[in-house]
Each structure stands twice: as structure tokens, then as C-alpha cells.
Fold these 2 entries.
Entry 1:
Amino acid sequence: MAGKEGKKKLERYLDDYSFSESSRIRKDGERIWIPELFCHNGHSLMVYGVRFDGLPAIHVRVEVGGEGGPVEDYYLSPIINDPRKEGKDLPEGTHMRLCCPVCKEELRQLVPCSCRVGAYRRAVYLSTDPGELGAVGICEIYGCPQSFVTEDGELLYEVVVEHG
Ligand SMILES: [Zn+2]
Ligand SMILES: [Zn+2]
């Protein structure tokens, strides 16, 4: 999943983030991960039945191809820059309508993704209040690893694919 067109790399924008046992972003060793994520309506997306290295997965409901498409469940790793996920394999580049599995609403649109014209990163939030501006942006294109993490409106991490 490293992308055949470019090299994937993790940008870190803040070296002095104060990781703790209650911070919204956690770190142990080299592993940076997120313990809790929510939809814009405050529903928890974490599930314990699927785990990545012992950590609960992020559950996202997908309508394949767009609104009204076949519904699939995906479980994403909560570890930053970890492309692992569980769910049906789709052709690279498939558009996914990313939804909350509880309220079924489409996740909010954040910023465009450079992988495709018209592609957007969608928001899952670090807290139950989207107004706190802490979010993970995940791309709605299957196979695109470009994601980012913000807290208090500040960009902390970004996974980018370098072309060239
Ligand atoms: Zn919801
Ligand atoms: Zn993308």
C-alpha cells in the first residue's frame, strides 16, 4: 500500500507535543497512536473486536463508489502512518463514501487530497466536540495513504506521498 507512484513519508510538525497517559495522541517507543476517535456527532468509532498490535481499531462504514453504493465495513489502524486495515479489497482508486457506523452520516469534508482531482480528506475527531479542531483527515480514495492529524487547529502529523 506504499503507492506505486511515489514514496510515502511521515512529516512531523511539532517536536514538543506533551504525550501523556491522557493526551489525545499517545506515544510508546516509536509508535504514535490515537486512543479515541469520534464522528462529528460524537459517536465513538473505536472497536475492540478488531485490534492492531493490541490497540482498538477505527470502524468506518463505507458506501463503495458513492452514496447508495454497496455498504462495507472497514477497520483502520489507530497507529499514525500505519496503512493496515481490515475490510474488503477494492481496486486502487475506488471512491468511498466514508460514514459513521452509528449515525450513518457521511464524515465531514476537510481539505482536498492531491491524489485525485475532486478527492477530499474526511474528518474523524479526537474529541466529541468537532469545534475543538482536533481531527484526523483520511482520504476517501481507496489505497490513498495521505492522512494528517491536527489538534487545536494545528497540523501535527501528515503522511504524504512524494511524486517524482
Ligand atoms: Zn455518528
Ligand atoms: Zn488521497
Note: The chain has a mean pLDDT of 94.
Entry 2:
Amino acid sequence: MKVSVIGAGTMGAGIAQIAATNGHEVCLYDSFDGAIESAENKLKKILNRLVEKERITQKENETILGNINFTKDINKLKGSGLVIEAIIENLEIKQAVFAEIESLVSENCIIASNTSSLSLASIASACKKAERVVGIHFFNPAPLMPLVEIIPAVQTTEATLNAAKSIIDSWGKVTVIAKDTPGFIVNRVARPFYGEAIRIYEEGVADFATIDWAMREIGGFRMGPFELMDYIGNDINYIVTETVFSSFYFDSRYKPSFTQKRMIEAGYLGKKSGRGYYDYSADMPKANEDRGLGKTILWRVLAMIINEAADALFLKIASREDIDLAMTKGVNYPKGLLAWADEIGIKNVLKQLEGLQAEYAEDRYRPSPLLKRMARENKTFY
Ligand SMILES: NC(=O)c1ccc[n+]([C@@H]2O[C@H](COP(=O)([O-])OP(=O)(O)OC[C@H]3O[C@@H](n4cnc5c(N)ncnc54)[C@H](O)[C@@H]3O)[C@@H](O)[C@H]2O)c1
């Protein structure tokens, strides 16, 4: 089956690499001067490095590159069985591109979007045969991150959803199915990991290094929230939070923070600009390794992300298994949050949240009705 990828940027080039590695004839299209050349050069470098590390052979390198047609001619999409769009995150532009794609491909071609924040229903509405449109959301870097969220729009048929899922499964990815709601699973459930950590800092409970240390050393997270925000880029991370916040009709649970906004305004974008929450030209600050304080920090953030995961299950955003898989495979959490809640005890999680809600009288701390119900009925997630 021929696979076409529209947009040869960070995500598009990575998705083309995956499809070509899995033996598909791939058409990688971009409309901007230089984008295709740059994607081709970057991919050649990546594949050469994989050969040096003996992860692929020189022959495989040549086969993968030979499978990809790098093009500025949109007509080359013809004959595709799957088209994945990964252009700029702008609804009007995506809608125009979807209408154009549909005019070039056959009736049976699946047309997917890699959008992180737009509604699939609105993108699909640009197509005459909207039932063949679906969200296929990869994580960055696409060739390395195992998780892919598959998002049916209200228009998407079961057959399209199943076909999309089985293609991505056959590429060795871990797929989860998510409702067409802001942030899908990962970008929704992860919000308090950043937001609550920033709030703890703003209240003066601890500094960045101490919060990161607590989440890493006591919580077992691969990276603390501040080092992770610096790694992702404060600009990117902030935009996701702001988009989720406004898409949820300004639910205070997702409120962005001034602390992060000021970082962006100052140009402290994170690792890529040499400075974010940390200054990468200087020695890293030392954490206050007080385990009592560390546990206070961890339980507060953990209760908030568990609450988000429970609420996603309560609102049928995804299944219990898919919510847990999404967080372990999409953002490397050490455990699935619902399984973790069982381990800690639902009543203990609820007590923590009710304590925060009583202390602050803020809606952001409201416990999910599911946790209350489960605590009352002595239930566990698994
Ligand atoms: N970067 C991430 O971490 C990430 C993760 C998951 C999903 N996404 C989503 O993937 C999509 C692409 O993101 P990215 O980070 O790869 O962006 P990017 O800016 O790196 O690449 C976008 C590419 O699309 C091209 N393009 C723009 N308009 C076009 C058009 N009309 N026709 C053809 N090509 C066009 C640009 O030339 C550019 O090469 C967005 O929808 C984004 O939300 C991004």
C-alpha cells in the first residue's frame, strides 16, 4: 500500500521514515521551498547514524531511502491507500489541504491528520467523504516514541478506525483509541504534571531542582516536570496548556501559569535556547533532598494526574487500559496512573484531593466523581 505524508517538517519526516522502514512506497510532500530538501538531508543523516550504530544495515538504509519519493508535486499522492497530514497546526489551512487531498485520491483512501489540538470533526468536515477521515497522533520523535493515539471523528466509520489502527499496529506502534476531545489522552492527563509542579514552585514550597528531584527520585519519573518542560520547550508546552485550557471552555483545572509565560517572554525557552528553568551554561542547582518535603511534592502532583486520568475514564475518553498505556508509552510515566491509584488506595488519593480542595477552595482541585464513587463502594480500577 502506498502511504503519503503531507508536510515534511519534524513530524512528517519522522512518519515517512516509519512508513518506509515498514516497506511502504512513501510519497513525502511539502509545498514550501527548501522543506523537502531539508527533510531529505536530515533523514539521510539519521539513517547514516543508524548504520553507524549497527541498528540497520547499509542495504536497509538504501531500501528505506529508495522507498521515499520526496516531492513538491501534490499530484504524486495519487494511488495512496493512506495519507497522513502533518502540516502547520491551523484549521483553515488543514481544511483546504484535506479538500485537495480528497480530490486526488480514490474513494477508499484513508485520510488522517496528525493534529495535536484541533478537532477531527472540524477537519473531516472539509471532506465530502468525511467517514474516511481519522486522527493518527504520533509523538515526537515519531520513530522513537512507541505510542500513537487513534482518534475517530464523529463522522469516522468503524471500518476506517479499525483499518487505521491495524496499519499503525503493523508498524510496531502501541495504539490507543481516544475520543475527539481536547488533548486526547496524553496531552490532557499530563497537564497537572506541569501545572501543579509550577504551582508548588509559585507557592514557595520548593525550587525547580527540588521538585524535579522529588518526582524523579521518589516518584520514579524519568524526568522531573521542569527539566521536561525545558526539554520540550516552554513555548511548545505553554501553547498546549493554553489550547487545552481554552478548548475546555476555560476550566480552571487547566489554567496556564504566569511563571511559564514569563519564561517564554524572556526567551528562556529551555534547552534549545540554552536557558529555561535552568541555565544550561552553568552548574545545575542542588536539590533539597529532604524526603518528607519530597513526598509532599510527589503526592500532590500524583494525586492531580491520577484525578485527571480517573476523570478521563469517567467521561469515556478512553478505556482504562488505554489511559494507562498512553501515559507509560507516550510520556514514559513509570506506572499507569489508574494502576498506581489502586496501589496507593483510591481513598488515599481522594483524601489528598479533598484536602487540597478544602485548603484552597479552588475548582482545579475538584475530585473526579468516579474517585468519590469508587471510594464509597470500595472499588479498585483493576
Ligand atoms: N512537533 C510535535 O511535537 C508534534 C507532536 C505531535 C503532533 N504534532 C502535529 O503535527 C503537525 C506538524 O507539526 P510539526 O511539528 O511537524 O511542524 P513543522 O513546522 O516542523 O512542519 C510542518 C511542515 O508542513 C509544511 N506545510 C505547511 N503548510 C503546508 C501546506 N499547506 N501544504 C504542504 N505543506 C505545508 C511546512 O513547510 C513544514 O515543512 C501539527 O499538526 C502538529 O500539531 C506535532
Note: Residues 2-177 form a domain with the Rossmann fold fold (CATH 3.40.50.720).
